[in-house]
Amino acid sequence: MMYWQDQRFLQFIRYFNEKQDYFECHEVLEELWIRTNVQTKKHVLPLLILISTSLYHWRRENWRGAEKTMTNALKRFNEICWDEPYIDEIQLKQQCEHALQSITEREAFDSFTLHTDPSLAWQRVTIEETPEQMLVDKHVHVFQERFKKT
C-alpha cells in the first residue's frame, strides 16, 4: 500500500484542513513516516511534518521556531521528488512562501488548506476531537496526560 492510501495520511489531511490541529498532524505523519521505513528526510512525509510544525509554532507566536521550520520546509521542496499525487504541490509551495513572509513580518496566524484531489476521501476517516482552546498548547496537555499514566 502506498502511504497516501494509509489511514494516517488521510487523518493528517483531515486534521490539517478541518481542525488545524497541527500537533496531531505531526504525530500521525511521524508515525506513518517511521512505519513506511523511508530512510531519508528528502521525502514528502517529513516535508509535510515540517509544514505542520511551523504552523503550530506560528499559531503559538513562536516566531523563531515557525520561521526556522518553514524555511527548512521550503528548502526541502527543491530537494525531494514529489510523488504525492493527491496534493497540489505548486499551490502548497506558494502557500508556504506566503506563510513564511507573514511569519517573518510577525503577522497574526492565518491557516491555509491543502488542496487535494477529490478522489482522496479524507473526509471519511475518523479523527480525535480536540477542544478549540487546546489547539494552541496541545503539546503541554499531551505531555501532562502521558505523565499522569506513569
Automatic annotation (TrEMBL):
It holds the Pfam family DUF309. It comes from the Bacteria. This is DUF309 domain-containing protein. InterPro entries: DUF309, TTHA0068_sf.
